[in-house]
Amino acid sequence: MKSIILVGGEGARLRPLTYEMPKQMLPLLGVPMIERVVSFLASHGVTSVVLSLGYLPDRFIAAYPGGRISGIPVTYVTESEPLDTAGAIRYAATEAGVDDTFVIVNGDILTNLDLTKLVAFHRERGAEATIALHPVDDPSRYGVVATDERGRVESFVEKPTKDLAPSNLINAGVYVFEPSVLQHIAPQGRVSVERHTFPLLAEAGTLYAMADDEYWLDTGTPLTYLQSSVDLLSDPRSPGVDQGNWIHPDASVHPSATIQHSAIDKGCQVSADVVITRSILLPGVTVGAGARLHQSLVGSAASIGEGARLDPVCVVGAHYSVEPGTHFEGDARLSVI
């Protein structure tokens, strides 16, 4: 089975980290997010993937020049212009010659949902398309789905207000499609799968959905990217975790530094009396003596001056230098660009 992974977005919510790196290439405990997504798909029988590229496509191709990610063959398809979700799916499927049941995944979703069960459900119902659903407390940021007792979608509402949402089951960004769905997508221009394709299929009675309450996280914001790291640090199956932290073997951390629930990547240098909690340091970061970092993200080769403080939720871009003794907090975005 093939899978199309949508990785064309600009990752605006994670700027400035995404100015030089697509969000799906950002690491989680040293492993690029895209590799974790591909490994998940492979565990459910996906044998090849198509990357639907748009933003900084060369970063993916340079990282995996052999055409394999996590041992799975990959085809690169790059949009010449933004096509939105459905347009990207149609273009990628056409260019890659997809001609059988296939899976689509948003590339910034981490989940343990039972994809094998979702595909079986799709086939049992004779669906054209099937959406994986996930329950949330506040569905207003997502597409909300209401179904009948067999899972046939009765309504699909994109980002409703909380009081008007027909259910708390949201579109989890994982779909199973038949090739016939491509005929419902205009061959040119921007087309949204949520706003255009799904309502058409729901009206035709060929759209189904299945709920799954397994782990699911949209990693597209600073807080959720941080949360995904903390979740992995809490997972006993995660390799390399020691006392709730992941520190790359090539990183240097002074014995007097305090590290809690954090990931410190390759080449980082952490000085004396530093305190880092619930944060992520990408490769090559230097942290001066006495600095304090809490619930913050620091991009590659950035430097944090002596005695500086970063409080929730600071995002420091690559190569940026935080001056000694300065203090940032709130939604602080620090960048050389």
Let me know the number of strands: 31
Shape field: elongated
**Coarse structural class:** alpha/beta
Largest sheet: 8 strands, mixed
Let me know the CATH homologous superfamily of the largest domain: Spore Coat Polysaccharide Biosynthesis Protein SpsA, Chain A
CATH architecture heading of the largest domain:
Alpha-Beta Complex
Give the CATH class of the largest domain: Alpha Beta
Q: Enumerate the spans where pLDDT stays under 50 for 5 or more consecutive residues.
A: none
Q: What percent of residues are in strands?
A: 25-35%
Please give the alpha-carbon distance between the first and last residues. Answer: 42 Å
| Individual helix count | 6
Over all CA atoms, what is the radius of gyration? 21 Å
Order of strands, main sheet, comes to: 5-6-4-1-7-12-9-13
What's the helical proportion of residues? 10-25%
- The average pLDDT score comes to 94
Task: Say what the CATH topology of the largest domain is.
Answer: Spore Coat Polysaccharide Biosynthesis Protein SpsA, Chain A
* Count of all domains: 2
Fold and architecture overview:
The protein is elongated and about 65 Å long. The strands form seven sheets. Strands 5-6-4-1-7-12-9-13 form an eight-stranded mixed sheet, sandwiched between helices. The protein has a seven-stranded mixed sheet with strand order 15-16-19-22-25-28-31. The protein has a five-stranded parallel sheet with strand order 17-20-23-26-29, with no helix packed on it. The two termini are 42 Å apart. Helix 3 (84-95) packs across helix 5 (193-204). The model has no long low-confidence stretch (mean pLDDT 94). A hairpin with a 2-residue loop joins strand 5 and strand 6 (72-78). The protein is built from six helices and 31 strands. By secondary structure, the protein is an alpha/beta fold. The chain has two domains: 2-218, Spore Coat Polysaccharide Biosynthesis Protein SpsA, Chain A; 234-334, Hexapeptide repeat proteins (UDP N-Acetylglucosamine Acyltransferase, domain 1, 3 Solenoid), CATH 2.160.10. 19% of the residues lie in helices and 31% in strands.
